[in-house]
Request: fold
Amino acid sequence: MMKPTYTYLIFGGTGRTGKHFIELALREGHRVRALVRNPEKLEIKDTNLEVVVGTILDYEPLDTLLTGVDFVVSMLGDARRQQQENVNTAFVKRLIPAMRRQGVKRFLYQAGGFTRPYKQALPLMSWLLKHTLVRFSGLLGQHRDNEAVLAYLVEEAMDIEWMVHRASLYGDKPSQGALKRSETKFNIACFVDCAHYSYNLLSDASAIHSYDLSYYQH
Reply:
């Protein structure tokens, strides 16, 4: 019996996790459409890969971009710009209505492990790390933006089958194993493992409307 094939639309495909996600989806026989600012950064060549040049800041024909798409994946991150404004939130607020118009239901958004769950506090140790290490690394804006995206999804987009992966990721190294979903447990994972986790999460109906962490179950 042949496996079904799908079309994935990915934002952030030239990023360190996004590249692995694209490679995996193509290897599994699916089609991928990627909106990228610098196509030369995407060295993957495949007849099932469609590269569209543009950015989330200025790309207008989202409905055209979403035509024929089954799954939408956001692995966006621009720490410098997110220090100044919630660029991902502004984009997601344009993306979700376009998904509704095109009948696209499932959406995966990759946030960070220090992104606060909706209307919840982080555990003390995570809070301390966020306001020391993360702050000094210039990444607080990313988490603020991610938290605004999550609030929008919970409050205004429950008709969409969204899922948020609060990923703790670092290092482009070989796979360390399979990641599992958890509300409380997490490990710092390499990019390829986060890509595999997110790819599998999209097919997990129990993950709809979740915003969980991930950890290695050895």
